[in-house]
Structure prediction request, 441 residues.
Amino acid sequence: MTLLRSGSATDTGLVRSVNQDLAIETGTLFAVADGMGGHAGGEVAARLAVDTLTIAFGAKPTGTGLCEAVSEANTVVYEHSIDNADLRGMGTTMTAAALVQESGRDVIALVNVGDSRSYRYHEGELTQITVDHSLAEEMARSGEITESEAAVHPHRHILTRALGVADEVNVDLWKIQPTRGDRFLLCSDGLTNELADTQIAEVLATVPDPQVAADLLVRAARTHGGSDNITVVVIDVVLGEDDEEDVPAVAAVAADFHSAATMPPGTSRSDLDESVEVLAGPEPLKPKWRDRYRARRKARRAARGRRLITVRTLLFLAILGAIAFGAFYAVRWYDTNAYYVQAANNELIIYHGRVGGGVLYKPIEVQRTGITTADVPSYTRPQLVAGVQEDSLKAAQTYVYGLVAAQHQSACVQTPGAVGCPSTTTTLPGSVAVTTTTKVG
Prediction:
């Protein structure tokens, strides 16, 4: 038996006006589609592909069925493009993962067409499973250019395969045995164009909740440029095929899913309630003597009656109240007159309050920066985990941006001429020194 848990997120980015990406999550099927062909065409292509994939795979939920479902999605998008002149040339990428049975065992089937990607995070290592179907990547595979050259090649966005651009399409297929603790990542190129594999791996390694991890990856890609639509699906293998006889683990998983804010897609809360009730048993009954004791104690208190309150007592209480009132506001002012920066779930977050909380005031999150611990100098990470106090919100923001600038400057010192760094300085006789900079994005 294999149990999966997932989370997804998407964002239009900072350049595009329309989000042509689309993601789906069901109990056993997950996919990301990146549409293309103008505002209307891209959205239509992605929606047609995802809807067709879901229906076709549901009719034949196998690895072969997943490939056939992608081929059927290609046919639907292509025919729709031919029948509608306004949508000519539309298409979409598609990367999908599904939990299927092969020879009586659970496997994860993965398919891909285009440059959206699927990764596996296994035992501390992030591996790209799918192969990009782009002109630049094919040139790199043939040895014409290097991988680093392919990443910035002007033809890197020209696809050699996509759904809907021809009446037939070749679909790549992989089959992987699910192992408890594995993470699978499906994403559009809006994520991988902005974040390096090391940055993606750090989020997947340190953020346990798949929904929180998906949200953070999307925010980080947006912060790093957001030049395209960004879509992410994170899939966790909570229980693997080889854990079938691990009864305590099954019980822990059921309890965890019952209390989680987001349940596995396709699973109703009533189903989970039933399983947990069987594992946990009925609620213990309260002894009747406890109710009788409380009733007698309440009756004795009522019988005592009210004592007379003198003017002196009222005056004392008023003075005591004023002192308490003043102390309350003094402590509250101290607790709230500060901000601090702290790393939480691998992201730098600014809070209103004091590190560790105050006596009368719990810190409040005021800004998620979208900047991860991979974006700042490594020597500052222990301080960020503990929390760095600042006097104001502006000071906290300045501190964060200063860390990013320091990390960028350090990277430029180590790798002169890298993307975003001054590469050469040329001085001609009688002229001013000119520094050229590699364009970012």
Observations:
- The radius of gyration is 29 Å.
